Amino acid sequence: MLSFNILITVALGYVVLLFGVAFYAERRAAQGHTGWLRSSLIYTLSLSVYCTAWTFYGAVGYAARSGLEFLTIYLGPTLVMIGWWLILRKLVRIGRSQRITSIADLISSRFGKSNTLGVIVTVLAVIGTTPYIALQLQSVTLSFSVFAGDSGPWTAQDLSGTALWVAVGLAAFTVLFGTRTLDSNERHHGVVMAIAVEAIVKLFALVAVGVFVVWGIASGPTDILARIDASPIAEWQVNGGRWVGLTFLSAAAFLCLPRMFQVLVVENADEQHVATAGWAFPLYLAVMSLFVIPIAVVGLDLMPAGSNPDLFVLTLPLSQGANGLATLSFLGGFSSATSMVIVAALALATMVSNHVVMPLWLGLRPQGATVSGDVRRVVILARRISIAAVLALGWLYYRMSGGGTALAAIGLISFCGVAQVLPALLGGIFWRGATRFGAAGGLLTGFAVWAYALFLPSFGAGGVMSEALLAQGPFGIGWLRPQALFGIEGLDPVVHAVLWSMLLNTSVFCVGSVLSFPSPVERLQGAQIVNVFEHSSGPRGWSRGTPAAEDLLVMVQRILGSRQAQTVFEQEANRQELSGYLPEITPDFLERLERELAGSVGAATAHAMISQILGGAAVSVEDLIAVADETAQMMEYSSRLEAQSVELTRTARQLRDANDKLTALSIQKDGFLSQISHELRTPMTSIRSFSELLRDDDVSDVERQKFAGIMHDEAIRLTRLLDDLLDLSVLENGQVHLNLQDGNLRDIIDRALVASKQDASLKVVRAPDHERELLHTDLDRLGQVFINLVANAQKYCDADRPTLEIAVSRSEPDVFVDFIDNGTGIPRKHQAVIFEKFSRLSDQAAAGGAGLGLAICREIMERLGGSVTYLPGKGGAAFRVVLPRAQALAAQ
Amino acid sequence: MNSRTPPEQRPAVFLERTSYRRRRLRDVGRLLPFIGALLFLVPLLWNAGGETRTAMAMVYLFGAWAVLIALAAILSRPLKTRDDVAQQSNGPD
Amino acid sequence: MGRRVLLIEDEPNIIEAISFILSRDGWTVHTHSDGETAAARVRKDMPEVLILDVMLPGRSGFDILRELREDKVTNALPIMMLTARGQTKDRELAEKLGVTAFMTKPFSNKDVLSKVRALADA
C-alpha cells in the first residue's frame, strides 16, 4: 500500500512543477519568445479542460452503470470541432476582431453592448458552474481518501478539510497567474502552459491505466472484447432520446461553457490553430475514451461488489499492486480537476469583474473614468476577489451537498444550464435580426425552465420542491409538473429539461427578436459580427469628440498601465507622423483605443468609459451610413434632417433679429438723412430766393440790404450746420484725435464764457475757488462742450432775468460741473430726446442752430471718458458734465 | 448565404479549377459534421432492430470516429491555407 | 387784384421771401406759423390759394392737408405743398391726400409765382 505521505509529497511536487511551468512560460512570453506558445499543439491541448475529473473518474463509473452512453459527452464536442468551419471559425474571428473577453462579453457586445445581457449571462454561468467546481473538489478529495486507506476511512471533516486546502491552493494559482497584469488580449500564457502540461499528464495517465488493463490484466484487445461481451454491460440499452439529447447537450455546452469559451476563443492566438484542433482534439477525445469501457469491464470483474466504479481508475492499479501507476493515475485525476477549476475560475472572474463589478464601480463614481483612483488596480482587485469568491462558492456547495453521489448528476444539470446561452450565441452570430430584447427573453425563459424542470428538482423531493409539487404540479396543475411539462411523461428528466428549455428559449428568442426593433448600436454590432468575414476593421464607434490627447492618455494609463498606454500612443503618433508628440485624436485612433481597453475591461465598459470622456455620441453619422442598411440610413437621415431644421430655425431667428436691427437702423438713417436734407435745404431756400430777388430790378436798396443780410446769416447757418455734422460724424466714428493736455478747470470755464460771447443778457454765477481742478484731457473739446451749454442757456432760458449758475463739485473719482439756469427747464418727456440729433424743442427762430449741439456734447464727453446728462429737479434747465479726474483717455 | 459567402465565392465569370476545387472542399468541410452526426446515430437503428452488443457498438463507434478524424485532418490543410480576404489583426504577442 | 394767399410756414426767412414775391405780383399774403391752429385759420380766412409747409411746429402739414380735404368746406381749396424733404414718398403721400400742387425747397421764384397763378385760375 502506497504511503499516504509519499502521495502528498508527489502531489506537492507536481504542483510545484506546474507553478514552475507557468512561471517559465510567462517569462518567456514577456520576453517576446512566444513562438512555441503559439503552436497549435498547445491550443489543442488547452481544449482538454473539457475533460475534467468527471471524465477521468466519472466516465468509467458512467460506463460501468450504463454502457456506451458516456460517449455522448464526447461525441458532441467532436461534431462541433469537426464542423469548425461552420461555427468555431466564426466565433474565433469575432473574438479576435472585437476583442471579446468572455462569453458574457460576446453576448453583451453583440446586442448593443448591453450590460444587462452581460449580467444575465454572468449570473447564469456562475450558477451553472459552481456545482461543477464542487464536483471537482469532491473528486480530488475522494482520490486522496482512496490512498488514505491505512489510517481508516476518512471522515467528512477530513474530506472537507482537504477540499478546502485544494480550493485555497487553486485560488492562489489562479490569482497568481491569471491576474498579474491586465493583458489587453486577455491571454494568460502561464495558465495555458500549465493546462497543456496537465492535458498531457491526464492523457498519459489514462492511457497508461488503459494499457495496463488491456495488456497487463487482460490479454489484449480480443480478450477485452470477449470480456465486454461477458460483462453486465454486454447488452447496451440504447435510450434513443438520451443518445441524441445528450450528444446535443454536450455539443451545446462545449460552445457555451465559460471555461471552454476562454480556451477556444479568448486564448486563441492564431486562427489557423482552429483548423488543426478540428481533427486533433477529436483525436484526443477518442484516445481518452478508448479505454473507458475496458477499464469499467475489468473493474466490474475484479473489484469487490459495491465498490465505487468511479474510482476504478485508481483502485484497479492499486488492487494489482501497481502503485506507481496508481500514483500516475492519481496525478491524472488531479490534473483533470485542477485544470478545470483554474480556467473556470478565471473565466468567471473575468465576467464578474467586467460585467458586474466594473459597471457598478463606474456608476457609483459620477466623476467618470479619469478621476479618482486607479481603474486598473480596481479591475485586478475585482478579478482576484471574484476568483476567491467563485472558489469559496464551489467549496460551500461541496460542503452543503455532503459530497454524495448527488454531485455526479450535477454534471449534466450544469451543462443544461449553461447551454441556455446557445440560442442567443448562435442567433447572435448568424442572424442579423436577433435583438437584445429577444436574447434577454430567451435567456431568462430558458433559465427559468431549466431551474424549474431540472435544477430545483435535483435537490430532491423536499429539498426545494416539495414531493407534492413534483408529483402533481403547482396548485395541482398536472401539465405544469416540473418533470413532465405539458403532459409529456416518461422522458428522462435531463432530456425533458433540455427539450423544453431549448424549445421555449429559442421560441422566445425568435419571437422577441422579430417583434422588437434594435437600437443603432445593436444594428451596427449585428452587421459587424454577423458579417465579420467581410469587415476587416473593428467596430467603428467614434465621432470626432474633442478630448485632449492628454486626458485620454491619463485614462488609458489607468487601465492598461503606463507602459502599455504610452506604447499605444507612441505607435499612433508614429503612424500619424507626429513622432515625439501626442497623437491627434482621430476616430480610427479612438476605435483602436476602445479595442485595447475592451480587452481589459470588456467591450461595454470600455465603450462607456470613452463615451464618458467624449461626452456624447456613441456612433457617428458617417459610420451608421456605412453599414449600408436601408432602414438605418433612413433613420439617420431623418434625425439629421431634424437636427438641420433645428439649426435652420435658430439661424432664421438670428437672421430675423439682424434684419430687424438693420431695418431699424435703416429707418434711423433714413430719418437722419431726411432730417439733414431738411436742415440743409431750409437755409438754401432763403439763399436761393433772396439771391434771385437781388437780381431783380424792382427791389429797393433797403430791401436789398435786408435780403443780403438774410442771405449772409443763412449762409453762416448753413456752414455751421455742415461743421457740426462733420464734427459729429468724426466723433461718432471714433476718428477723433484727442489732444490731451494738462489744464485747469477754471481756465477752461473762463475761455468758454469768453468764446460764447456771454453778454449782459445772461448773468453767470460762479464760484471760481471751487473750480481749481487739475485736468488731463482734451481742453479744446471740453471747452466746446461748455460753450455749447452756455449758448443753450443764452438761447433758451426763458426767465425774465436769465441767470446761469456754474457749480463744481467732486465725488471720487469724478468731477461734476453743473450748468443750471433759472428758466422753466425741460419737461420730463423731452429730457432724453434732447441729446438726439436735430431735436429742437422750441421755436426755430430762437434756435439758430441745427439741434446738433447737445448731440455733439454727448459724443465729446463720451470720448473723454465722462458724460453729460440732464439734471432734473433743479427748477431750470440743468446739465451735469461728469469728468473723470486726471484721466488719460487715449484716442483709439 | 449571401452575407456569409467570402468574396471569392460570389459567382465569377470563369470557374477556375483550383478555386472551384477549393470551394467544393469547403462544402465538404461544412457537411462533415452532419455526416458525423448521421454516423453516430446509426446505433439507434440497431436497437430498433434487436439487441445491441456493447462490444460491436464500441468497435463501430470508434471506427466511425477514426474515419471522421482522418477526413477532418485531410481537409484541414486546404481549408486552412486559403483563408478569407480579410485577415485578422494580430495581437501584440 | 385782390387775390388772397394764405401761407402756412414757420421759417421766418422763407415767409419773408415768399411774401415779397407774391405781394409784388399783387397778391395779398397772409401768414400763419403754427401747425395746431393752422386748419382753423384756413377756415376763417378762406383764401384763393393755400401754401402749406410740411414741417410745422405742433402738427404735420400732411395732417392738416388731410383734415382740410375731409372737410366739405375746404375740400376744393387749391393747396400747394412745400417741403424741404426731397423724397418721393412725400410727394406720393401728398398726392394721395389730395394736394393740388407740390413744390420742394429751394425753389425758384418764378416757379412759385406761376404755380400760384395757375392754382388761382383753376
Number of contiguous helices of chain A: 34
Helix/strand structural class of chain A? mainly alpha
Please report the distance between the alpha carbons of the first and last residues of chain A: 110 Å
* DSSP strand tally of chain B: 0
Question: Which geometry of chain A do the CA atoms define?
Answer: rod-shaped
Task: Give the fraction of residues assigned to helices of chain B.
Answer: 55-70%
CATH topology of the largest domain in chain A: Sodium/glucose cotransporter
User: Which range does the strand content of chain B fall in?
Assistant: under 5%
Mean pLDDT of chain A: 81
What separation lies between the terminal Cα atoms of chain B?
Answer: 34 Å
CATH superfamily of the largest domain in chain A: Sodium/glucose cotransporter
Category from helices, strands and their pairing of chain B: mainly alpha
User: In total, how many beta strands of chain A?
Assistant: 9
Oligomer: heterotrimer
| Rg of chain B | 19 Å
At the first level of CATH, the class of the largest domain in chain A is: Mainly Alpha
Give start-end ranges of low-pLDDT stretches of chain B.
1-5, 7-13, 83-93
Which helices and strands occur, and which strands form pairs?
The complex is a heterotrimer of chains A (892), B (93) and C (122).
Chain A: H1 4-31, H2 40-46, H3 53-66, H4 72-82, H5 88-97, H6 103-110, H7 115-147, H8 156-178, H9 189-217, H10 221-230, H11 240-256, H12 258-266, H13 272-290, H14 292-302, H15 312-319, H16 323-364, H17 375-401, H18 406-419, H19 422-430, H20 436-455, H21 467-472, E1 480-481, E2 484-485, H22 493-515, H23 520-530, H24 549-560, H25 562-575, H26 587-601, H27 603-614, H28 621-626, H29 630-695, H30 701-732, E3 740-744, H31 745-755, E4 763-766, E5 774-778, H32 779-796, E6 803-811, E7 814-821, H33 844-847, H34 853-863, E8 867-870, E9 878-884
Parallel strand pairs in A: 4-6
Antiparallel strand pairs in A: 1-2, 3-5, 6-7, 7-9, 8-9
Chain B: H1 17-49, H2 54-81
Helix pairs in contact in B: 1-2
Chain C: E1 3-8, H1 12-24, E2 27-32, H2 38-45, E3 49-53, H3 61-70, E4 79-83, H4 88-97, E5 101-104, H5 109-121
